[in-house]
Each structure stands twice: as structure tokens, then as C-alpha cells.
Amino acid sequence: MISADERFMRQAIALSASAAARGNEPFGAVLVKDGELIFTNENQIYTAGDPTYHAEAGLLRRLCAERGITDLSGYTLYSNCEPCFMCSGAMVWMKLGRLVYGASDRDLCALLGVEGSEPSRIVFRESGVSTEITAGVLREESLAVLREYFKEHGKG
């Protein structure tokens, strides 16, 4: 039996593949509350012409605009890759309850041949917000989509 984390991470990974198929970078995000899918989004930096339209930041912007939700303390956000500093900062402002990601920033940076860090852990730790972080869920599946895209494309 697959866990809820695996089920929702598979959706984030599918969104990341969809983003790549649409000409964007391969990142996807899923927002869940009480085991129910609330919102999804994929990276749209190229199709939207907005370098800040990451899967997570875009999800949070759309969620606020469409549903007026600004407190995510009871929510879990799934991302196929560890969120960047910008997206993590947005999650802090919205008091995200839990973050689950597949591949780490260090994994991504290793694919790109650059040095990585732990942006989400750094931002959440320094902010004082008590977001629970679960890393490495379906890491290899997440890496497969990233690896496929970045073997032919540069970042940003």
C-alpha cells in the first residue's frame, strides 16, 4: 500500500513532467489539507514570461487570489524538488504546516554541476516558523524527471 506522501508526491512529479512538456522547467507542486487535494501548479517561468513563476510560488499566488487563503498552518505542500529561497520565503509568510519534497537542492545542483545548499531548511530554520519538513520522498523518481530535462537544458 502506498502512503499518502507517495501518492501526492507522484502527482507533483507528474506535474513536473507536464511542465517540461509545455516548455517550462520540470517542477510541480501539490497542496493538500486533511488528505484532500486542494490545489496544484507547475512551473511556468517560460510560458508565463515570469522568472518567479516557480511551481510553489505560483501555487501560492493563485491560491491567495482565487480562494483568499493566506494561512497554511493546516496544509501540506508537496514539491518534486526542494523549494528555492524565494518559494520557501513565501511558505514562511503563509505559515505552511508541512513541506514534503523529493529531490534536494543539492541533488539538483549536482545535476547542474554547481554547488547546492538546503534553501528550504535554512529559510524555515531562520524564520522561526515551525514547518515540518520531510525530504527524499520518491527521490529517485523525482531525480529521473530532473535528469532527463537538465541533460539538454540549462537552468533559468
TrEMBL record:
Keywords, comma-separated and alphabetical: Metal-binding, Zinc
GO biological process: purine nucleoside catabolic process
InterPro entries assigned to the protein according to its UniProt record, in alphabetical order: APOBEC/CMP_deaminase_Zn-bd (IPR016192), CMP_dCMP_dom (IPR002125), Cytidine_deaminase-like (IPR016193)
GO molecular function, one term: zinc ion binding
Keyword Zinc part of the UniProt annotation: yes
Pfam entry (one): dCMP_cyt_deam_1
Domain CMP/dCMP-type deaminase: 3-115
Protein name listed in UniProt: tRNA(Arg) A34 adenosine deaminase TadA
Organism: Moryella indoligenes
